[in-house]
Design goal:
The complex is a heterodimer.
Chain A: H1 19-25, H2 37-40, H3 44-65, H4 67-76, H5 97-102, E1 118-122, E2 130-134, H6 136-152, E3 160-163, H7 171-183, E4 186-188, H8 195-205, E5 209-212, H9 214-227, E6 238-241, H10 248-258, E7 261-268, E8 273-279, E9 286-289, E10 294-299, E11 313-319, E12 330-336, E13 338-339, E14 351-353, E15 357-358, E16 363-365, E17 368-370, H11 372-380, E18 385-396, E19 399-408, H12 417-435, E20 440-444, E21 459-461
Parallel strand pairs in A: 3-4, 3-5, 5-6, 6-7, 18-21, 19-20
Antiparallel strand pairs in A: 1-2, 7-8, 8-9, 9-14, 10-11, 11-12, 12-15, 13-14, 16-17, 18-19
Chain B: E1 3-11, H1 16-26, E2 31-38, E3 42-49, H2 52-61, E4 66-75, H3 82-92, E5 99-102, E6 107-111, H4 115-123, E7 128-129, H5 132-139
Antiparallel strand pairs in B: 1-3, 1-4, 2-3, 4-6, 4-7, 5-6
The chains are: A alpha/beta, B alpha+beta.
């Protein structure tokens, strides 16, 4: 201890493997980096003031420049001048995916295309893709959001970041790339796929941060283990995940097997891309929303009416700083809850619970609502199976039948059909107790469920 | 006197058994007998090989779910009625056969719950038990 009472030895170097998580677990959040302390830790009053000022300007910007919104607001009898408080956002029209699809490609753009510096798109499962554009200002905001969430995970400018997202039209690759570069990191644009080469690159370049979907990260982990690569002594320290939801069990598994700390973030192409919210190390199930850039609402997915703070509902987002393609009250279809109390990490921005299910990925099995995330939760609680699974829904003799394919761990196997059947029955029993509907369980050999380099496709609905 | 057996958990799909066999070829492992059974969704393939430990290592390295266990191996004279005679003895002594398969028709692998107990019982019966060495001596060099 020095005379000032500050123990110099306590200064933590977060670039050391394991240090950031250890500091967080010890409650030493003052030792962890915050990218923009003035904004991220400002008072709730100040945040609301920033939001209101930006909301008024954003609505004006949108009304003046985008005919689609002008017509919509005129039909509803709403003028930009009607927006005087944050709650007045409820007077504005909702925007759905269809608005972007119907105006493909440039119908919602608010700036001349000369001013647009980048285009991204999300592949639509039906019809035209969703196309979004960014001007210089939008790119700055985006990078800002990414730099913040990277530092929440303990990423520092000296880090070497291997990007194992695909680049291309997908927002994840370039979005993370620019933001991490803005932070000062050395980017290694590996792209997705060629797993053995990914591991070779980690070794050759001394990669410290891996950006990937959690499913692909686990695959990299498994391939590395098979190659005899020692993750415990690897330079890799942080995993930044995205592209798909990361259930807690999967994250824990990757953290313990790869000896890294993993966080994931939330975002969607329609409102920007990744970076709308990010996970700090204080509460691993919550993500701080960049509230100076996004106004959030949580509504009842059926009625569109806001639910009380802290309750589950559909997340609705209004970007507050989006110039090239402004979007008002975007219906995400993602189910979450948002709280505004102060976080132990020191940040004051509201936190949303990690999105585990979407209002539109709900399956109805013989009249019962089932979310794939429930299946995921049950499976991750069972010792003998891996986090890989698939759900197949089909109609058999006029009835819905749901089959859950789950991969067993090598050590679960016993040379007895009796024991394997008992294990299968146990898995089925556990699933039924949570889903409240009977499912068929199929045990699959280790590695038998296809690994993807992008988003894992967990559900195959063969009905209709 | 029993012999080691390797069981592999495999999905019943084209190419899955082939993958295992290719790995055995690669590692120069000789398969002396095998049986594949299935429950519709998945299958268990059981092998008796010349080097069970090494075969198991090969499969583990591939990430396979495997189990090594012991089975009895009985040698039958090659004449009519031998299988009936041997199974008759096993039935009379109240041993329950969990599964059985033949290596070549005159060597059959038999799995029961309690291998040492079964060995004890069969020792004094007119059946010939074989161990890995016997199988090797008999089968090595036979095309």
């Amino acid at each position: 201890m020095t005379a000032t009472g500050i123990n110099e030895a306590e200064k933590i170097d977060v670039s050391v493997k394991g240090a950031a998580l250890a500091a967080a677990n010890a409650g030493k959040f003052d030792q962890l980096p915050i990218y923009d302390r003035a904004i991220e830790c400002s008072s709730r009053e100040r945040i609301r003031a920033i939001q209101l000022e930006k909301l008024i300007a954003q609505v004006e910007w949108t009304y003046e420049r985008v005919e689609w919104y002008r017509r919509k607001m005129d039909e509803m009898g709403v003028k930009p001048s009607d927006i005087r408080t944050l709650e007045d956002v409820r007077k504005l029209p909702f925007t759905d995916k269809s608005a972007l699809r119907d105006t493909f490609p440039y119908g919602l753009f608010a700036v001349p295309l000369d001013e647009v510096v980048e285009l991204h798109a999300s592949s639509g499962t039906t019809g035209k893709p969703i196309v979004v554009g960014y001007n210089d200002h939008d790119m700055d905001v985006w990078s800002d959001c990414i730099a913040r969430l990277s530092q929440m995970a303990g990423v520092v400018p000296s880090d070497r970041v291997q990007m194992a997202f695909g680049y291309g039209m997908f927002t994840g690759g370039f979005g993370l790339h620019y933001g991490l570069q803005k932070l000062g990191c050395m980017m290694i644009p590996a792209g997705s796929g060629n797993t053995e080469r990914q591991i070779q690159m980690i070794q050759d370049y001394g990669t410290t941060v891996l950006v990937a979907t959690p499913t692909y990260a686990l695959h990299i982990c498994e391939v590395g283990e098979r190659m005899g690569y020692d993750w415990a002594t690897s330079t890799l320290r942080v995993g930044l995940f995205g592209g798909e939801p990361c259930p807690p069990g999967l994250k824990q598994e990757i953290e313990s097997r790869m000896h890294i700390v993993c966080t994931d973030n939330y975002g969607l192409t329609e409102v920007m891309g990744p970076g709308v919210s990010g996970e700090c190390l204080a509460n691993r199930d919550m993500q701080h929303i960049a509230e100076d850039h996004f106004l959030w609402e949580v509504v009842d997915p059926e009625t569109g009416v806001p639910v009380p703070e802290g309750e589950m509902g559909e997340l609705v987002l209004t970007p507050l700083d989006k110039q090239a393609i402004p979007v008002l009250r975007y219906r995400t279809h993602d189910l979450t809850r948002v709280v505004t109390d102060k976080c132990a990490c020191g940040r004051t921005h509201a936190r949303m619970q990690k999105v585990r299910s979407r209002s539109d990925d709900m399956l109805i099995i013989r009249g019962t609502n089932v979310f794939p995330s429930q299946v995921e939760d049950v499976l991750t609680s069972i010792e003998g199976v891996t986090p890989h699974y698939r759900i197949i829904v089909e109609e058999v003799d006029g009835l819905d039948r749901m089959t859950v394919q789950t991969e067993i761990k090598p050590e679960t196997f016993s040379d007895s059909f009796e024991e394997m059947d008992r294990f299968r029955a146990l898995v089925a029993e556990k699933l039924k107790s949570v889903l409240l509907v009977g499912v068929r369980v199929q045990l699959i050999e280790p590695g038998g469920i296809e690994r993807t380099t992008g988003k894992a496709k967990h559900v195959e609905d063969r009905r209709k | 006197m029993s012999v080691p057996q390797i069981s592999v958990f495999l999905e019943s799909r084209p190419g899955h058994l082939r993958r295992i066999l290719d790995a055995f070829v690669e590692a120069d492992i000789n398969v002396r007998g095998f049986s594949a059974s299935d429950t519709g969704d998945y299958g268990v393939v059981r092998f008796i090989v010349d080097d069970a430990n090494r075969a198991n290592e090969v499969l583990k390295a591939m990430g396979c779910a495997t189990a090594v266990s012991e089975v009895l191996c009985l040698r039958l004279p090659d004449r009519p009625g031998e299988l009936a005679r041997v199974m008759g003895i096993i039935a009379e002594r109240d041993l329950n056969v969990l599964y059985t398969y033949s290596l070549i028709s005159t060597y059959i692998a038999v799995c029961v719950k309690d291998i040492p107990h079964a060995e004890e019982i069969l020792r004094d019966e007119p059946v010939e038990l074989a161990d890995s060495k016997d199988i090797a001596a008999r089968l090595d060099g036979i095309a």
